């Protein structure tokens, strides 16, 4: 739209237009200036052509050799983005590459101004609006042969591809990948393409694979896919054999080659004896005399799938004093880094005819009690926070399993996992943690805090302003 400004001669007068001062002291020819934009809807790094002409308002003839400036409206005053000189016919044109100050759809306002000189009076165009739109970041997740059902003992291969919606693959600036709620690392195999192979699938279960990604100039994206495992029977992750050698009970533990997890903590409970001393290379031993239980917690590394470890435990009581009998029992559990339990299934055998039986699926915490307590077992110190403020998280569990951490997850308003922490509860079952919300994922809205302990969970929420 054209907009001509005509000035009369007024001594010492200045005109303020949108924060830009135009000097109109000069006596001269009135002018008219126009502006055209090649496109009003563009994307980051697109090229826009600005063109126009400066003419004599009375005759319509082009005025050559005059400086004109293209401005972009700023938060306080206009910002010059190009300075040009008109040609012989009074015309001008230039190219501008679209940029963004924030990674969001942005509208900018453009106008062109001639400041005038001793011969010609100043003029300015009306305003034109250009919208810089984010490019949709296309995300595709597939499995090998597009399967969604796998047999026990299989591995699943997920393939991830990012594109700009055409034939061009693009790498995101930030990518977060999860498998069954845990952060995992995907392998970058080519531009915009990633793969992730699961551990062996060893349980009847559904497994969820999810991806969240961001890239400057693109809208953020997230997607998940679920697969199901089926078969004849579950593979059991832990195999245990035990025998009495002198004053010791020798316990050999092997993590199954098909196990999906590394084991970080073992907990054993003796029926018919009291543990007093234990040893295992790079494993810390502790005893809970109230339950006749003992714990081995890794000091360095972990027990990976296919690996074995030997523990020696000295005891008092019938196991120490007499030969073992079929009534004596050893309850044995392993826990991964997130506190998920892997119980021994089948017999744990001792020397000769001695048998120490395991108890299948024994839980150290009754589920009904746990659900009742954990339902209110996590809370934050305030209902709302500002960006950068520290969120204090606290809660309690009904019964402590030594060495098993409480996993605390914080999800942002888009249900994207923002942070994760692990804390060991104190003896009375209480625990605490903190979170600081900020950065690209620290958007305003309602956040969810989830506390997970031994397979059970509790939730609470807070607002970020």
Automatic annotation (TrEMBL):
Protein's UniProt name: Uncharacterized protein
Organism superkingdom: Archaea
